[in-house]
Amino acid sequence: MSSAARLLLAALLAAAAVGPCAGAGRVDLWPMPASVARGAQTLLVSRDLKLSTAGSNYSDGRGILREAFQRMVAVVELDHVVNGSYDGRGSPVLAGVRVVVRSPNDELNFGVDESYKLSVPATGNPLYAQIEAQTVFGALHALETFSQLCNFDFNARLIELHSAPWTIMDMPRFHYRGLLIDTSRHYLPVPVIKSVIDSMTFSKLNVLHWHIVDEQSFPLQIPSYPKLWNGAYSYSERYTFDDAIDIVQYAEKRGVNVLAEIDVPGHALSWGVGYPSLWPSATCKEPLDVSNNFTFEVINGILLDFSKIFKFRFVHLGGDEVNTSCWTTTPRIKSWLIQHGMSESDAYRYFVLRAQKIAISHGYDIINWEETFNNFGEKLDRKTVVHNWLGSGVAEKVVTAGLRCIVSNQDKWYLDHLDTTWEGFYMNEPLTNIYNPEQQRLVLGGEVCMWGEHIDASDIQQTIWPRAAAAAERLWTPVEKLAKDAGSVAARLAHFRCLLNQRGVAAAPLAGYGRSAPSEPGSCLKQ
């Protein structure tokens, strides 16, 4: 066992003796809120916990708050039989949660106010916790925080809430806190995607980046070009148009935006299964044919259909890893390049910029992978968000150029890199070497990426968690409250990992690399 592993094991052994609402100074909340104050009183939580919205301006016509409250109660109870008696316990009983939302609007989009205040008093008759939020989406985060204050008492067979009174003030550090899933390399059934969305809410991630298609498969129905999903792996490994709408609506009701991606002009071989004219030739099949107007008609049709499904402000157009050799080895395209006075690199820029204009015409801001910036950053539309992935230092250059940026540097935030430990995820700082406040505001946030070459429905959750949670705290918690040493949060993250397991999320142990199995028999808290 390495020295780092020994230190981690020692921290986890110390954590194993501590309950969910730790005494001795530790607050077991993940991610850590901006401000926390607490007392020493234990409350019992009513078996018939009530939701009150008295004084709220939000009507909850779509049931977002009501359904979130029901889910919160379910994860607190964890399918235990809660049938103990309150008589003679000597502890106050929390009768319900009062939620006051100031805004009547429940439209989810980028930059929505996610702040909240959560108060749990120690006295009152009736005794109610209080949530105040500007929007219903802040209230959803407050309900998640409240759920983490509660635990099941196995002796009393009741739900308890320790350390009242609580006063928690909270808001996210970054507006964009993302997780990428990849349904081209391996198909992910709709229930699996929904389970990932549910698990995201537990650590307050708020953008599901859906890398829908790639060279291997095209699983999504596009009504404008119905043969595109001929590129799916099989008849059953597909998403209908209505499936996509359902996924987006499911996510939105949980405060999660869905960012759709088509990666052009590379990573698009599967498009030509249904429409072979999109290929440069039958023997050289990507990138997409830059010389063919039909290519851009198809992109326009896809984005037109996207605009009916994906209501997020942004669409991702990829643009990475483009090998343009097929354009010069295909005589027809080579002639077109000569006719238009273009080199391969000129044609790459032309393709990306033309695709950007199409996306903007459908009301989207654009996200592109960083190669577009590295090659022709000064030509990118000013609505472009540059998605960093190749390494460090790119975000600094992007914001210096006045463009916005999302950080996903592969050495720290790629979940398919199993040798990257949770400590690396935790310590990865999006604002490294960016000190100007105006430039800092151009960093929208960050994203952990679950590329799908070696994951499918059987192992996606244990590959995502708990490492994604480590990044989630980096993106949510104020920088001054983040740990300077990842080891100091090991016990708290171990507690959260066990909480995920209890909620049915197959989060892997902290010890070892990503997706590691437990090394030996023992408590969840010791792994």
Automatic annotation (TrEMBL):
Catalytic activity from the UniProt record: Hydrolysis of terminal non-reducing N-acetyl-D-hexosamine residues in N-acetyl-beta-D-hexosaminides
Record bears the keyword Transit peptide: no
Report the GO molecular function annotations: beta-N-acetylhexosaminidase activity
Family, per entry: Belongs to the glycosyl hydrolase 20 family.
The organism that produces this protein has a lineage beginning with:
Eukaryota, Viridiplantae, Streptophyta, Embryophyta, Tracheophyta
Q: What GO terms in the biological process aspect are recorded for it?
A: carbohydrate metabolic process; glycosaminoglycan metabolic process
The name under which this protein is listed is Beta-hexosaminidase
Q: Which domain of life is it from?
A: Eukaryota
Q: What class of enzyme is it?
A: hydrolase
- EC number of the protein: 3.2.1.52
Boundaries of every Glycoside hydrolase family 20 catalytic domain copy: 174-478
Keywords, comma-separated and alphabetical: Glycoprotein, Glycosidase, Hydrolase, Signal
Signal peptide region? 1-23
Cellular component terms (Gene Ontology): membrane
Domain spans labelled Beta-hexosaminidase eukaryotic type N-terminal:
29-149
